[in-house]
Amino acid sequence: MQRWPLLAGAALLAACAGCASQKTPATADVAASRAAVDSAAIAGAGELAPDEMQAARDKLQRANQALAAKDYRTAENLAVQAQADANLAQSKASAGKASTAAAQLQDSIRALRDEIERNRSTQQQ
């Protein structure tokens, strides 16, 4: 009969260890998603991918709330989703900037070709 308290204590200790082990990954995931959101914001995603940035910020906020409520599984899931949304926003921002740069380059090339053509026709006269 003295094994019962020992087994109950061991089970409680294992459960507490499981809770503590969930906290660490959740905290790390929330920190990583915060960094991803910050990075996307710096890349201009707030202007070029506002929907994705808002989704990332909302999920990050909910992950922080879940972390504060010690709901580590929910915090971890929301943090991973927030990071994915932030990465998507940053990719869209980068793609938008690249498209704009490509269009500007095409305009410059067109202007140079027009100038070359004008110079050729002037030299031929």
TrEMBL record:
Origin organism lineage: Bacteria, Pseudomonadati, Pseudomonadota, Betaproteobacteria, Burkholderiales
Gene3D superfamilies: 1.20.1270.390
Signal peptide positions (record): 1-20
Keywords noted in UniProt: Signal
Protein name, as recorded: DUF4398 domain-containing protein
Keyword Signal: yes
Chain ranges passing through the membrane: none
Record-annotated DUF4398 domain positions: 29-105
